[in-house]
Amino acid sequence: xxxxxxxxxxxxxxxxxxxxxxxxxxxxxxxFARSKNAVNILSKNFIVFAVSSLGFMLLGWGLMQGGTxxxxxxxxxWILGKTAEELNNTPYYLSGNGIPFWANFxxxxxxxxxxxxxxxxxxxxxxxxxxxIVFSFILTLLIYPITGHWIWGGGWLSTLKVPFxxxxxxxxxxxxxxxxxxxxAALLGPRIGKYGSDGKPKAIPGHNMSLAVIGLFILWLGWxxxxxxxxxxxxxxxxVAHIVLTTNTSAIAAILTSTATSWLFIGKxxxxxxxxxxxxxxxxxxxxxxxxxxxxxxxxxxxxGVVVVFAVLFFDKIKIDDPVGATSVHLVCxxxxxxxxxxxxxxxxxxxxxxxxxxxxxxxxxLVSQLIGTVSVAAFVLVTSTxxxxxxxxxxxxxxxPEEEIDGLDIGEHGNxxxxxxxxxxxxxxxTAVAAPDExxxxxxxxxxxxxxxxxxxKPGVKITKVEIICKDSKLEALKNALTEIGIxxxxxxxxxxxxxxxxxxxxxxxxxxxxxxxxxxxVEVVVSKIPVSxxxxxxxxxxxTGHIGDGKIFVYDVENVIKVRTGEEGYDALQDVE
Length: 579
Known about the structure:
This protein is an alpha+beta fold. The chain has 17 helices and 6 strands.
């Protein structure tokens, strides 16, 4: 056969963009999870693509694309035993665009990997690593390929009187991953601490929203390969351009409506909801990106942005604990977008649009086909994935121990931390103290082999006082400068948490209130003898006072003695910074 360099390059580049979405999923999921589980999340997103690649290569492609049987592929199941020439010449291989078989295979492979990755976020922070690996392998070996055959492999859904329409995979990829995620999250149960004794959900905030936003933009970029690349050809650039714009338009509409919805119903424009909203718009338009007008994509995205907010709140209410909102985004909006094709499809908007939906005079035929496809895929994936989860639970076990979950899966499953510099170090023992170098000493010369003898104060009986000031972080610089001006040359500053009458501003995470009875404060400690305590107190009061709750408190303590280690001076003399 004659190959098209342009079309082959287009499919490969689009496939690279879809592959790059693995990083986006990893960033979003780890950002929405707690820091103690970051290594586990990142590891799952690494391993899932390797596992799904192996499963799809061993058997998945054959079940999906192997022949014209209406329910499952039956020919060329073991493609690793075939040469490229044999595979390129199979009669059912879609080679009309001049794309070599392995380029086509890679394109289908990255879609398969996406379906498996969706599951990772919904079962995060409590699933055993090995159990997730096994489920991902079976999903991509058997479950995903069979429903994919129905839709894209010449199976029964593509041969209905009005064929089922799913251009880039709202159902074939996203809702398949979503249904599998839903069953996994339901069987695992919620994370420890997710629900109170009254049954109401508690917020478990993610540890890094910056990382989640970075992941969102990577996914958004990847979608410009996901949807336009499904043309598998650049023969008609107008089609590609149209799909690019419908994809982007749905995303921006969903961003605006999800932000507005969370603002109205939660009271604040929740960033987590906005992230989920953008993804919801992208998922919803994926089925119809080649069949709807740009105006239609605007409406689809707007609807998805509203729906995803209420979906997140709904799943929280029925105790389906999904840390990243995968079920709300990929399942709910995948189904929604598939059904909306039956309303908004318009014949002729691209060369792929052969039928119109209800709103463009096409009657109910397309909507009925969309319903049939959505329900049949849902039923198959719900039953098969539930069976797989149960078998894994009975053999390997699904959930980590409560102790491991509380400590974090990073240590329990992987033996390391994502942020080791922020982990409290173990106590220093005599052995480590001898071996550890004195990094803080710098270039200060050693004055003697042993500490100097004590030097009693030249002014015995002079009172020594410690003043402890608790204040807002925003006042620290002004307080430090004011104390320096009155002669305070040494102070200890500590960032602390405290609770009191101030209580703090209401805080929410994805619509659930966060308990904020501890507020960040600064604790400044000074010890004085020469400078009057009253002067220190008046200076601090002058700087900190606003007349509002939260101005801070000042505590005054008697100090028995002070010893300067370097010189051996004690009492009053130890507080005088004189060379």
